[in-house]
Specification:
This protein is α/β, with parallel strands linked by helices. The chain has helices spanning 2-9, 13-21, 25-32, 38-50, 67-87, 109-126, 141-154, 169-176, 201-217, 229-241, 259-267, 283-292, 294-307; strands spanning 54-59, 93-97, 131-133, 159-163, 182-186, 221-225, 250-254, 272-278.
Length: 308
């Protein structure tokens, strides 16, 4: 399986230098990350929302080693919110954040991440939108869920992400599926040991359906994070069985992947939210996109060969 190999490469400084220096890399990266600055991303926001889509926006970057870098990440999100304010999109443009960017892995990281993310959540609420806390590797999740619970005391619309491949996720889904909750379900994109996570695709797919059923039968808003046509069809059927209306759940897919499907689902009346990343520190995000889906890797390799 190439996925674990690519994920290992995502943590390699040597591979980062090699791939970043390849002439074709920037053109391929642009497929998944359409800009580096707020000014570059605003036209993308306008284009997607004009086409009936919604967004969740991610300022890429995870390799935070100092409190000052964590504060800079906070400020980057605050600058994004200031620009979104002028667009008056409300919840049509929300944000996704990784707590590692806010200092979670530093000494005293739990308190530091909470202190840095809270102003972002407050600012988002002030312009009528919200924030979703992305899931990272399993060692960070207890801290993420505790921060999520704390933020929801004042901002109950704050969302979080759960990963189907982890054994713990069914229990997490039952706990999180209460009224007012917003939970994005993804398969999972980090290399996790067999002691905590399913390793085979068919096991992960079955777990995804089990967890999605829990969310659909709950009282919150499930956010279906998948590009898999079969899982999308199953999600629609589970929503029908649970008596959900189209605005009582949503689909979420990555910018640059299955764009025609984004538009098809929106045209059918579904809420379709596009996960749109931007920024200069794109390497880790880009490598996970390659690891998640063989077609992404094939696209990258074909581009390198054709332009090499």
């Amino acid at each position: 399986m190439l996925g674990p190999v690519i994920l290992a490469a995502s943590r390699s400084d040597r591979m980062r230098r090699l791939i970043s220096a390849a002439p074709v890399t920037k053109r391929v990266v642009d497929r998944f990350i359409p800009g580096e600055t707020v000014d570059e991303i605003v036209p993308i926001v306008r284009e997607l929302t004009d086409r009936g889509l919604e967004l969740t926006m991610d300022v890429v970057g995870e390799d935070i080693t100092t409190p000052e870098q964590a504060e800079a990440a906070r400020d980057a999100y605050l600058a994004l919110i200031e620009r979104l304010k002028t667009l008056e999109l409300g919840t049509r443009a929300e944000m996704s954040v990784k707590l590692s960017m806010f200092g979670q892995a530093l000494p005293g990281g739990h308190e530091l991440a909470l202190a840095n993310v809270r102003p972002v959540v407050e600012a988002a609420a002030a312009i009528g939108t919200t924030v979703t806390l992305d899931a990272e590797d399993h060692t960070t999740l207890d801290s993420m869920f505790a921060i999520h619970e704390e933020l929801r005391k004042d901002f109950p619309q704050t969302g979080c992400v759960i990963q189907a491949y982890l054994f713990r996720t069914e229990a997490d889904a039952r706990r999180l599926a209460g009224a007012g909750s917003r939970v994005r379900l993804v398969k999972g994109a980090y290399k996790e040991p067999a002691e905590v996570a399913y390793q085979q695709k068919h096991e992960i797919d079955k777990a995804y359906v089990r967890v999605l059923r829990i969310l659909m039968e709950g009282e919150g808003c499930p956010m279906v994070g998948s590009h898999d046509p079969r899982l999308i069809s199953i999600a629609q059927e589970l929503a029908r069985q649970a008596g959900r209306k189209p605005d009582e759940y949503e689909f979420q897919m990555l910018y640059g992947i299955r764009g025609d499907e984004h538009l098809r689902l929106a045209a059918e009346g579904h809420r379709m939210r596009v996960y749109t990343a931007y920024g200069t520190d794109w390497y880790g995000y880009f490598m996970r996109r390659l690891a998640e889906k063989p077609a992404n890797l094939r696209f990258f390799l074909r581009s390198m060969i054709s332009k090499g």
